[in-house]
Design a protein that fits this description.
GO terms for molecular function: aminopeptidase activity. This is Aminopeptidase. This protein is α/β, with parallel strands linked by helices and about 450 residues long. The chain contains 14 helices and nine strands. The protein has a nine-stranded mixed β-sheet, sandwiched between helices. α4 (about 160-170) links the parallel β6 and β7 (about 175-180). The longest helix has 16 residues, at about 205-220. The radius of gyration is 22 Å and the shape is globular.
Length: about 450
Amino acid sequence: MGLIATGVSPVTAAPVARSADIADQLRAIPGLTVVSESATPPAGYRFFKLTYNQPVDHREPAGQRFEQRFQLLHKATDRPMILHTTGYNMPANAFRSEPTRLVDGNQISVEQRYFSPSRPDPADWDDLNIWQAATDHHRIVEALSPVYAQKWISTGASKGGMTSVYHRRFYPGDVDGVVAYVAPNDKMNRLDGAYDKFFDTVGTDADCRARLDGVQREALTRRSEMLEKYKAHAAADGMTFDQVFGDIDKAFEMVVLDTAWAFWQYSKQADCATVPAATASTDELYTFIDNVSGFSFYSDQGILPYAAYFRQAATQLGWPSLTFDHLNGLTKYPGLYQANSSLPPALRERHDPRPMLDIDAWVRTRSSEMLFVYGQNDPWGAEPFVPSGRDSFTYTAPGANHGANIAALVPAERDAATAALRRWAGVASPTVQSQSADLTVPEVTDLDRAEPRNIRRPF
């Protein structure tokens, strides 16, 4: 695909206001709006919610534009800046990602384009691609660099980690290093045998794998009973199925297909004790699947907020193509387990493999200062990124799931990863790593907290 930045108008560095107050300096940046500043920020920080005016198509900067949301935790302009993204919506509350804590830095967290409200109206969905999103980040970096002139590190988990990789590929000079957590690399969507192999071998308990297979088989065997429960659940909670799946039966099958993936993505080996036997009651099966996979997600209300994700998966990012051999004769919808199934018909599109092949080749041969962290029991790690040998590293946290982070690594690797990050960030000595009690941090681990729980399939 090449470096396709041709035609993008450079961002003119904003003159920094003479005021020493960071709010005044932010307001002086052209295109940036200070939406609000928290009156009760976390200790040691100021917390801002901001927007930045972006072209919908960066090749046509004079055309349609939209406001992209992001948040800022400001500590000091002489500290490093962490560029964080979930790859989805902007988190609502103040939080510090693991790299921010490790370098004691500032942090921005940017909402991915086309996630509401960072969506143009009307929206041309062809402008939702990895280069356009990377260029969003590039313009924000250029706009803020005159104020935050120290080292920059980008980071994110899962789709956020992928987003950080893509930004680094197209604009390698924007940041001084990348920490990508649990980032999938589905470089050839049709060659997904690594995922089937993962489910054949994951964990330390073959009986656990067999019982998860059994849960899926029993749910589909008892389809009529399970559907009655699903319909009652949908009626009670106001779920509809008209806009995406068109039928509650099809949504039901998707939930069941997702069950083993969801279990290993978010559970641990010890949770195998909760997996029902094939002889369990229908109520027990329904409750387990709902707790693990979530019947509400595949309703219109659950899935439509993530249309931007599934559109990217369908067109560029790819998705795990599992065989489900253990369910032969029980499924009704061939080819259901793909990204287009989770999109309204008007947004469905053909997949183009070239962008991911380009990204994979660049990471393998030309990348530098990149740190990848994976979880041993996380299905998304079945197809990992493999960086070049230029000051880049890949570590796997033993027994960890999709919440793997540097802290979960074995001590020698944890220390090596921390040292690399601090070196890239220009932090010479250890800094305070403890999690401040006054920072709002959701329950899930670290960077994964802001990723929607049920986004499991496509990347």
